[in-house]
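Sequence dictates fold. Below is an illustrative record:

_____
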Amino acid sequence: MSAGMKKGSWRDRGRDRKRYNRRPEWQRDHSGHRAQEQRYEGGVAGPSHRTQVHTTDTSSSLPGTPAAAPELPGFYFDPEKNRYFRLLPGHNNCNPLTREGLQKEQQEGQRVRLLEEDERPRKKSLRAGLNSTLLLQKRHLGLLPESSYCRLIHELKVSSMKRHKLEVQSSDSSSPNTDNFRLIVADSACERVFTVNDVEHGGCKYGIMNFRGCSKGSLSVEMCDNLYFTNRKVNSICWASVTHSDSHVLLCLVGIAETPGCVSLLPASLFSNSNPDQPGMLCSFKISTAWSCAWCLNPQADKNFSTGLSRRVIVTDAVTGRRQTYGISSDVLAQQFALRAPVLYNGCRSGEIFSIDLRQRTRRGSGWKGCRFYQDSAITSVRILDDENYLLAADMLGKIKLWDLRVTRAVQHYEGHHNEHAYLPLHVNQPEGLLLAVGQDCYTRMWSLGDGRLLRTIPSPHPAGKDSVPSVVFSSQLGGCRGLPGLLMAVRHDLYYFPYNCDYQDGGRASGGLERRPASSCFAC
């Protein structure tokens, strides 16, 4: 009897030991998953490693990855310590463990790691076979098509861009700029950039920065003498050609309290003391709060501009003041005129995109609308390509699509953009075949315009926040005809430049990398 009892106890202990050593599936796979992540981080990755940069952890949703730890209400699982921690309500200021705080901490750590990676000198190419010498040899041997060569060269240039901080020269050097940049918009020659800065006591100030590219490969920035202040918010700006190309700036100001909104047409010479006697035409139009504006360069609608308002589009002649009003059913958040014909493209809060031909006289019903198509959320930006057969549109779901206007069908999607409720513009550079957009997560992303491939994700030099969303300009000739190609980024009160070639001189030192090529060398792609 005692022997039977001992034998049964031994079997029971064996079963208990097996039961104790058996771990849940997510615990068994976690260590292997962590080792796999370390191998990925330590190895040489291709450009696709930048396309996986997001502000939230999406590893649990990827196919083929182990299941994440079960989410328990009121607890947070730390994968490094392999245990749960209790979460307290977020309003408790003494509690460091809130879900929002942990997410911000994770995002900030990811941003810092990417910044360190960008600062690290790259001795090897990001992808096997991706170097200029080998690509050129393959092209001469006929092993690489022209379109593929252009795309890979752009990819190589984009991956080699390094951040350089620019010092803004000013006549009053005793008072450096401490106000955060809110918007920067370059003129057509990219010699001048109109800037809008938030000020501490409310409102904003605006002015013009002059850029000049030097033969030694450096870039100088000078702020114009005159800055103007307003207690109203600037909703939208664009350059206007009244007396000559980019002679004026069009501003949409939001009304506050008893001060109504207006649209101001300011001469660019107003911001410089070089010619104070003849500032040029200065106009202010009584137009209620405008969300967007656009200037028409087509001769058939010379000196006309449009403003997008709540449920209305107003087209105004800047010289005579004559207006045409188009009633619609939504707010117009984005506008752009075509160049070959006086056709205005509009993007609405409802997700509708439609065109208006200014040559058409009838405005009854909705018959005056040209092509019409929709996206799933509010449109924040529309950009027409040079051939005017294609249009780019971005919305508040983070979707960017390329539309063929001839068949009103989306023919390309650009993945990775992040937006939930912000007004974020698109930037297109067709000579280099690039599309750029700044996300609400403060990352600047660059895509190949032709195939939609995400080429680069650039983290912000400052921690993410509502007041630190970068504003960018990309140009093939930043600073005029002798200018330099690259990306200009304004974030907080700092200005940065990412050169698109190796000739840039930073403190007498070349940045190294690619050979400089003309901007039109890969125009065909």
